[in-house]
């Protein structure tokens, strides 16, 4: 993929993610999920899109899928986005998840 294509996909993903958050705030969760899914598909390393999709899944009762996304957020944000990492960790702890030692985060992926 060219740099131009990657940049275009990233900005398209941002637009989908923002739209998803607007829809989620209005309680239109199924539409929000579709927007966040589009964002994740366009930019698989976009940690915020994964987190927001996880939050939408959580709000409709899809907890297992939400937890998988928050674990992905932890691998994507390791040492780069403390706020997002802490938020994902906080949500995972609601389900009794205990984080792996920092040196194991992202192992095997």
How do the helices and strands line up, and which of them pair or pack?
Blueprint: H1 3-25, H2 29-42, H3 47-59, H4 63-77, H5 82-93
What features would you describe in this structure?
The chain is mainly α. The protein has a single domain, classed as Tetratricopeptide repeat domain (Serine Threonine Protein Phosphatase 5, Tetratricopeptide repeat). The chain is built from five helices and no strands. α1 runs antiparallel to α2, α1 runs parallel beside α3 and α3 runs antiparallel to α4. The radius of gyration is 14 Å and the shape is globular. The model has no long low-confidence stretch (mean pLDDT 89).
How many helices in DSSP terms? Answer: 5
- Main sheet overview: none
Structural class: mainly alpha
CATH C-level: Mainly Alpha
Question: What is the name of the CATH superfamily?
Answer: Tetratricopeptide repeat domain
Number of individual domains: 1
Low-confidence stretches: none
Element order: H for helix, E for strand: HHHHH
Q: Which CATH architecture? A: Alpha Horseshoe
The end-to-end span amounts to: 21 Å
Number of strands: 0
Helix content: over 70%
Q: How much is the average pLDDT?
A: 89
Shape: globular
- Estimated radius of gyration: 14 Å
- Please state roughly what percent of the residues sit in beta strands, choosing from under 5%, 5-15%, 15-25%, 25-35%, 35-45% or over 45%: under 5%
CATH topology: Serine Threonine Protein Phosphatase 5, Tetratricopeptide repeat
